Amino acid sequence: MAKVSIDRLKKQFGASVAVSDFSLEIADGELVAFLGPSGCGKTTTLRMIAGFIPPTAGSIRIGKDDVTNVPVHKRNTGMVFQGYALFPHMTVGENVAFGLEMHKVPAVERGKRIDNVLDMVRMTQLRDRYPRQLSGGQQQRVAIARALAIEPRVFLLDEPLSNLDAKLRTEVREEIRALQRRLGLTTIFVTHDQEEALAIADRMAIMHDGKVQQVGFPETLYEKPANLFVANFLGKMNIFAGRVESPGRFVTENKLALAIEGSGAAASQVGVRPERIALSTEPVGPNAMPGVVDSSVYLGSLIDVRVRLDSGEVIGCQLPNSAGAQPAAPGTRVHACFRPGDCVLFSE
Amino acid sequence: MTPTERDLRSGKRLGASLAFPASIIVLMVIVVPIVMLFRYSFNHFDASVMVEGFTFGNYVKFFQDPYYRKVFFSTVGVAAASTALALVLGFPVAYFLAKSQSRYKSLFIILLVFPLLVGNVVRAAGWMVILGNAGFINFVLQWLGIIEQPIRLLYTPLAVVVGTTAIVLPYLILTLQSVLEGIDFSVEEAAQNLGASFPTTFRRIVLPIAAPGVAAGTMLVFILSMNAYATPVLLGGSGITMMAPALYDQITKVSNWPFGSALALLLVTATLIMALLSSWLIHRRYVKTMAS
């Protein structure tokens, strides 16, 4: 496996810019998720790395080699396609053998490697089946085995789980992660599902409008989102507009004073995650805003409560449905309390 | 019987009764003439009239007369050559069309269909203008000084092959295009990703997947070519005789209905056998492996 260096990559289709100024270093054996809504440029970037789309500008290096102008079939990347793209006229074994034949692997070793990868994805028994005789999850496994058989330098996955049902999705996700760790595969995983990305990635790159918004560890991106897009794309966030009046003190447009941490004199917005807000009858801590419960939705493991603050804002809170939790009936007077450390500052 | 069952039954009855008129027409215009030709082919021909009887003489005549054997093999030869030529010319166009995302794609398809609006005779007349002794090609070659005397292009087997290819090409391209459009493009990308060059991807992936559809299109074109009438008459002239014109001559010029009928049935049978044979071969080679 090898590291991947992407430098100021750009793709323009006619007048529209699909990807611009994309720079990223992916370490050997690291799994990076490209996350973003559809049309954000994540798949275009992946396809440029695989070689299907020539970039307008910038460069891609795999290991020490500049592959920017290397054709697809000489790049040695292993790609798993969204629709699996198995060869319908070949058996499972033949599908896996194809790449090995193309790489001129001698027949004896070829057999060993086919056994090996099929065993890895638990598909040995179905070796002589044709793709249309397999379930979606099985086809997915074959696609993974086929891509890994050629011992690629980078493992590329384009929305690999989007065609599976919810339960299977988690299962296959765990399997991919385990396999990736065990083999030390440098992996790029494209998805639009934030939970999937959070669960699987070492680092994530969040994209929007063809630009990388933020790159970092899942925790960092969730706890310290760089901008409002990242904050709202990864989970939900209550946003208060206003300005920093003095260090540690933020005043909203409705004259609500909030205690904050950290410096950010230019901050024009403060965000708080719904699950970081606690509701209590008495004020607790420096940020305790009085209000009335507007609605309460029971979601099983948590309860989604909307509180109308006396200052006028409506905020969302997610309360754990823990033992002894009191259901907050609409109309109840409460205090919404959160720590200054849970406030995220935005200056945009 | 529940109301639903009754609805279903009456639905089926309605369907059957709607299909009835069409079935009658098919029976009258296709089955009845073929049965009659079949019967005629065993009759005698006495000087200038058909005499009822039962003889294999007409079939024996076909197989014994070197002239008709030649007619038969020219027909198969022209049909095979036209089909092969159309396949070679048509496949790249169909592939390009199937892969095209261009907004001019539908315009291109309309242009392809356009020749079908012009009759075969009119198009043959066009080829006569191009291929004749004083035609376009000879004129250009003479003007360039490559030849002094016009070369004979019209009224040759080559002219018939060219004319037939031009007629069947749109049918083939349209059939192949719809077949190729059905292939998931990502399969080709997967092959390239696994290290296959474009030619290898084409040979190992695209062609086998497209094979059944390609075979169907090729068969359609071969059948059309085997049964061509206007093009061989107008472009082949006395230079080559094919089955359809030959049997037409027997019936209209000589009034030899029994022998004409035998020729017609032999043409139908030969076409059918070759079509089924090629279909079976393709099936054995490719389709078997894709069945579930």
Please write out the topology:
The complex is a heterodimer of chains A (348) and B (292).
Chain A: E1 4-13, E2 16-26, E3 31-35, H1 42-50, E4 57-62, E5 65-66, E6 77-80, H2 92-102, H3 107-120, H4 136-149, E7 154-158, H5 166-183, E8 187-191, H6 194-200, E9 203-208, E10 211-216, H7 218-223, H8 228-233, E11 238-246, E12 249-252, E13 257-259, E14 269-272, E15 278-280, E16 287-298, E17 302-309, E18 314-320, E19 333-338, E20 344-346
Parallel strand pairs in A: 3-8, 3-9, 6-7, 7-8
Antiparallel strand pairs in A: 1-2, 1-4, 4-5, 9-10, 11-12, 11-14, 12-13, 14-20, 15-19, 16-17, 16-19, 17-18
Helix pairs in contact in A: 2-3, 2-4, 3-4
Chain B: H1 3-40, E1 44-46, E2 49-51, H2 57-64, H3 66-99, H4 105-113, H5 120-131, H6 136-143, H7 157-181, H8 185-193, H9 198-226, H10 230-236, H11 243-252, H12 257-290
Keywords:
heterodimer; A: about 350 residues; alpha+beta; Rossmann fold; OB fold (Dihydrolipoamide Acetyltransferase, E2P); 2 domains; six-stranded mixed sheet; five-stranded antiparallel sheet; 8 helices; about 35% strand; elongated; B: about 290 residues; mainly alpha; MetI-like fold; two-stranded antiparallel sheet; 12 helices; 2 strands; about 75% helix; about 0% strand; globular
